[in-house]
Structure formats: structure tokens, C-alpha cells
Amino acid sequence: MLLAGCGGTAGGGTGSGGTGTASTPAGASARAAAAREQLERNTIVPLEGEAPTPGLPVTVDSSDGRKVTVEDASRILPLNGGVAEIVFTLGLGDRVVGRDITATFEEAKNLPLVTKAHDVSAESVLSLKPTVVLADTDTGPDEALDHIRDAGVPVVVLDPATELADVSTRTTRIAEALGVPGAGQALNERIDGELAAARANVPEGSRPKVAFLYLRGSAAVYLIGGEGSGADSLVEAAGAVDAGKASGLDQPFTPITSEALVKAQPDVILMMTKGLESVGGVDGLQEIPGIAQTPAGLDRRVVDLEDGVLLGYGPRTPLVIDILVDRIHAK
């Protein structure tokens, strides 16, 4: 995570769980330092205690309109990195037999990869003999999922997570599909507590405007987030205003123009790390027309977080809020 123009980042700490500190700069900084350390380790923190034992069979609603019966959760294959994080955090990581390209945390990185680019290979999936597959509505191609179903493997499809409220819904659905609803409730309680502790450190009277920019310089993709971008929910949870949304952008993403940036007038720019790197860092970002004319550009206030974590909306989302609360309110 990089913050340009507002001092360095602190180190140390052991994660963001537990009770929060009073709303003070020291409290926010301590939690942000611990969160940053946890994210740098890139590991999952499972629920405390013994791993849950699935109570199966269960029949659940799938987001593709089907009802799916899961009889065996001994070989789980999540086809989404955020879903995989939830499975591991529930304590079922030793049952996971493969991974999607977006599952980049340490516990999953040595598992067999079953995607080519972002497309699922049905042959790779079936070679791992999964007993249940967890997918998103945007997992594809459809033919691959049909092939997996035709082979007799239950496929539970979930709605994508695009806002903070989706974290608990997604956790509940995954836990139910795997026959561990109690673990899902415990995880939701843990996440709720961590989020509350993070948000308790929002300074009174501070409402900076934050613009989320999605950039891929090598592909000439330059977008500003608006309502429904996914980042707007995080920005608001951290006690700030989504600059794109506030300026009237009612689509998730809009091509960046000087006029749009000047109208948005962000105090802080939020980005994914690889996106910032793709334009040459903060110096390269300043070359994009309109950036240097915003308060964020003038002060070089840019916050970036690792791509798979920032919009992951899963068990590590409280760490994101801890960092945002500290960094976007910094003077």
C-alpha cells in the first residue's frame, strides 16, 4: 500500500481483530499498521477452534435459478478468489483441491490452477475429482460449467459481491452450501466486530472526497468509479464521500475526462496497486489530463491496495477499512 505526499506507512502489529481503539489518530494508525502487516503476509486467519464438520446433505438455491444438492464436501473447488478466502476462513481449507487464478493468498498458491486467463477449464476441474464446485454468476464459459454439471458434480453459483452488505450474505450462502451454517454465523460475527472497530476510528467532522480510478495503462483503460463501482461502498464505510458518485456519475465506471475530474474534485485518489503501476506510479498518474488539477493531484494524495484484496469483499475486507480510515483522513 502506497500513500504519496502524506508521510510513510507504519509497520508492526498483528492483524485487525479484537476490540477497537477510541477514535483517535493513534488508534487508527495502530490498526492500519496491523492491517498492512497482515495483508503483506497475504495469509488467511481461520476461525478459532476446531474445523467444523459439514452436516450434509443440504439443498440450496443457486443464483442460476437451480436448486443444488450437496452430499459431500470432502473435495471443494472454489472458482473465485473471494469465495476461496471464505472457505479457508471457515476452516475448510484442507478440503480445497484447486484454485482460480484470482486466489493468490499463500494458503492457496500451490493448489492446481483450473483457469486459463479467466476462463474455467472443465477438464482441469474434473481431473481434480471435486465433490462440490462454488462459482460466481460471472464464472465462465457457460459450456464449461455445463460440462462439470453433466459429469455429476454439484455446482453452486453465487451472486458477485459488490458492496459491504454482500459480505455477510455471501458468507452465509457458502457456509450453508458446505453444511457448516454455524461457522458461517461465527465468521459473520467476527467480521461485523472487526468492521465496527475499524469504523469507530473515523474522525468526527472529516468527510474527504475519494475518487476510485480503475486504470490499465498498457490497455489504455482509464475509468473513474461512480455509483455501483464496488469501491463506493468501501469509501462510504470508511467515513468518506465517493467523489464520482457525488458528482453525479450513476454508472459503475465512466471514461476519465478532465471535466469529470474537475467536477469530482477528489481530495484522495484510490486505486489498485497494479493499476497505479501500469501508468508509472504517482508521477505517471499526474500526466493524465485533469489529475494534477484536483486537490488529490495537487497534494499527491494517492492510496493503493493490492488488486485481489481491495474489492474482494470477504474476510479481509475489515483490513481494507482499517487502512482506508487511517489513510484517507490523514492531513
TrEMBL record:
<feature type="domain" description="Fe/B12 periplasmic-binding">
    <location>
        <begin position="75"/>
        <end position="331"/>
    </location>
</feature>
<dbReference type="Pfam" id="PF01497">
    <property type="entry name" value="Peripla_BP_2"/>
</dbReference>
<feature type="compositionally biased region" description="Low complexity">
    <location>
        <begin position="21"/>
        <end position="34"/>
    </location>
</feature>
<feature type="region of interest" description="Disordered">
    <location>
        <begin position="1"/>
        <end position="34"/>
    </location>
</feature>
<protein>
    <submittedName>
        <fullName>ABC transporter substrate-binding protein</fullName>
    </submittedName>
</protein>
<dbReference type="InterPro" id="IPR050902">
    <property type="entry name" value="ABC_Transporter_SBP"/>
</dbReference>
<dbReference type="InterPro" id="IPR002491">
    <property type="entry name" value="ABC_transptr_periplasmic_BD"/>
</dbReference>
<comment type="similarity">
    <text>Belongs to the bacterial solute-binding protein 8 family.</text>
</comment>
<feature type="compositionally biased region" description="Gly residues">
    <location>
        <begin position="1"/>
        <end position="20"/>
    </location>
</feature>
